Amino acid sequence: MTDNAAAPHPLDLADPATDPFAVAEAAASVIRERTGVETHHVALVLGSGWGQTGDLVGETLTEIDNTDVPGFGKAAVAGHSGMMRSVAIGDTGRRALVFGTRTHFYEGRGVRAVVHGVRTAAALGCRTIVLTNGCGGLHEDWLPGTPVLIRDHINLTAHSPIEGANFVDLTDVYTPRLRDLAREVDADLQEGVYVQFRGPHYETPAEVQMAKVLGGDLVGMSTSLETIAARQSGMDVLGISLVTNPAAGISKTPLNHEEVLEAGKAAAERCGRLLAAVVAKI
Hints:
The protein has helices at residues 20-35, 54-57, 111-114, 116-123, 176-185, 205-214, 224-232, 257-281, and strands spanning 42-45, 59-65, 83-88, 95-99, 128-137, 146-155, 190-196, 218-220, 236-246. The protein is an alpha/beta fold and 282 residues long. The chain has one domain: Nucleoside phosphorylase domain (Rossmann fold), CATH 3.40.50.
């Protein structure tokens, strides 16, 4: 290394020599200091269309800018918030850690950055994580604004957040007990298989049909890598997709991100009350 070359930051997730779990511990330490509590119990990741729902989960006691916490960056997607919040879960004395955004694989920051929020939540003591997203639906009767429980996923990113010979069982990757809890709150909830593509471009009609042949019901650009990391850390996972648009080829209407945001706004109250009730039951 020359004198002019910058040494890698000791908490740089992109540096292969850095332990990503050590970065998560460092991030958890900052959150503990800022919130004044040692432990959080449930984590929520709010995807496209879910941003307003965090207000209904409980009272926000602390807000932290992502850029103040090791390993986190600014929100890269319109409609996402670059803040994380410590939220009181009713009067139970329990706390939820609510992430207003996530790092997507298509941002090019690597898989470690994608799952850093999950690992930070685990380091804070969260034993359950709720992962939400906005997605394309493969069924014509799943209209925009429909929340769908994820019962399984197909990871088409060709990557995994797990490094080394660590063989994690993904048989019940989305915890059945949590899906049952969600249906206690809303008995009309459908469930399906989520297919993660790399993005950031939307899927072609042929790719959507391929996903359907493989057994998919929903297509999107997040969630499965985070779910794998959560299971590696021993966390229970509840995945909920908000159908924001029919997937390419299902409808003749061209896809656009504004449509995703509008569908989320229209469904915000139902989704927020669903999440608040489920979190209270967990």
